[in-house]
């Protein structure tokens, strides 16, 4: 018996040189999905690294150029399935909805994988507001939808999308084999490293993190802390100035943008990971990476994390209760319990291997691709 014909999938994703969860996702799928049964082609869409792509005045041109390039790719390759990767956010949706229209006009079935999530847009669809009705009318052109949490799935069902066409999936990650927290490499001569890594926005809890660093130092002078903040964004210069003004250079290390091996090294050298976000999150990729590194977590219970994580994975904080004092107390709670940290580290790596490992997720996506393409 000969091999089954390949299922050709066109994956629309960001330029892989960009930083972000969707670029990480697209890069891992491109790297790990290509077999005799599924042949995946990545079409880079959206902004590119460079001088003009990020400028507001250039965005309409970006959308037109991307739409034309995507239409040409669909007509040229005639894929069995188109895989789109928007966030449920107004800034992300217009381009992906254009791609969905192109795919359906070309007679190609489409899979819509929602990464980020905005509760307000979901409610606009559920309550049939005019913008929600318009969005639903376009989304119904897709053959299937994928979300990252059961709560998101239930909201799409409440909005009127068929339950049988909505699947749950996970974000893939390459599970690390090294971690100070997991393997007990935290020597007494080294500081206790608290890692925060995100786009640097006020809503990501960066200011609570800075204040918690000072509270921790002042409340526990016998402990040697190092708070590591990594990432860039609109708050970066203000954070940098705050560290200088408060004289926190020995307490807080500001790393800026980290990628590749430098990012891996940060995870492996940390003792715990803190994610104090108040942002409208989907399933934050950085939390998956922290799980894979075996890091105990301090996290705000944004919907997808509250659904997935428990005390077995770290210390959860209600978004309404988030403050610098609460954050500092949670950090100390883990600092003072090394046995608990080791147990959490093992549980987190186990969760990452069972649910988020790139092998598991890619195998699930391959099966879904074949099913939707009728292969």
Helices and strands in order:
Elements: E1 7-14, H1 21-32, E2 38-45, H2 59-77, E3 81-84, H3 93-105, E4 110-113, H4 119-126, H5 130-139, E5 144-147, H6 150-159, E6 166-168, H7 180-183, E7 192-197, H8 206-219, E8 225-230, H9 236-246, E9 252-256, H10 260-269, E10 272-275, H11 285-292, E11 297-300, H12 303-308, E12 314-317, H13 324-335, H14 338-356, H15 358-372
Parallel strand pairs: 1-2, 1-3, 3-4, 4-5, 5-6, 7-8, 7-10, 8-9, 10-11, 11-12
Helix pairs in contact: 2-3, 4-5, 4-6, 8-13, 11-14, 14-15
Structure description:
The protein has 375 residues and is of the alpha/beta class. The protein folds into two domains: 181 residues, Rossmann fold, CATH 3.40.50; 176 residues, Rossmann fold (3-Layer(aba) Sandwich). It is built from 15 helices and twelve strands. It has a six-stranded parallel β-sheet, with helices on both faces. The protein has a six-stranded parallel β-sheet with strand order 9-8-7-10-11-12, sandwiched between helices.
């Amino acid at each position: 018996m000969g091999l089954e014909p390949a299922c050709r999938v066109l994956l629309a994703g960001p330029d892989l040189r960009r930083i972000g969860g969707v670029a990480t996702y697209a890069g891992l799928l491109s790297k790990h999905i290509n077999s005799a049964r599924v042949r995946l082609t990545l079409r880079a869409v959206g902004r590119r690294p460079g001088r003009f792509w990020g400028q507001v005045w250039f965005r309409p041109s970006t959308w037109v150029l991307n739409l034309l390039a995507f239409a040409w790719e669909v007509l040229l390759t005639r894929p069995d399935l188109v895989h789109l990767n928007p966030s449920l956010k107004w800034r992300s949706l217009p381009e992906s909805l254009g791609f969905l229209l192109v795919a359906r006009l070309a007679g190609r079935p489409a899979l819509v994988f929602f990464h980020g999530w905005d509760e307000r847009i979901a409610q606009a669809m559920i309550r049939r507001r005019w913008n929600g009705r318009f969005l639903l009318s376009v989304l119904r052109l897709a053959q299937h939808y994928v979300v990252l949490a059961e709560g998101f799935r239930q909201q799409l069902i409440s909005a009127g999308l068929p339950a049988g066409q909505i699947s749950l999936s996970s974000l893939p990650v390459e599970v690390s084999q090294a971690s100070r927290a997991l393997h007990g490499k935290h020597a007494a001569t080294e500081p206790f490293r608290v890692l925060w890594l995100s786009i640097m926005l006020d809503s990501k809890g960066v200011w609570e993190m800075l204040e918690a660093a000072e509270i921790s130092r002042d409340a526990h002078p016998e402990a040697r802390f190092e708070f590591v903040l990594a990432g860039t964004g609109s708050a970066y210069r203000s954070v940098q100035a705050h560290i200088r003004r408060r004289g926190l250079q020995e307490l807080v290390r500001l790393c800026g943008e980290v990628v590749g091996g430098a990012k891996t090294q940060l995870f492996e050298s940390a003792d715990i990971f803190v994610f104090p976000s108040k942002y409208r999150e989907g399933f934050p990729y950085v939390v998956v990476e922290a799980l894979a590194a075996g890091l105990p977590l301090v996290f705000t219970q944004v919907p997808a994390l509250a659904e997935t994580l428990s005390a077995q994975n770290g210390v959860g904080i209600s978004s309404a209760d988030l403050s610098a004092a609460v954050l500092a107390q949670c950090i100390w709670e883990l600092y003072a319990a090394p046995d608990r940290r080791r147990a959490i580290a093992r549980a987190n790596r186990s969760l990452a291997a069972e649910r988020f490992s790139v092998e598991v997720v890619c195998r699930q996506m391959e099966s879904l691709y074949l099913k939707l393409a009728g292969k």
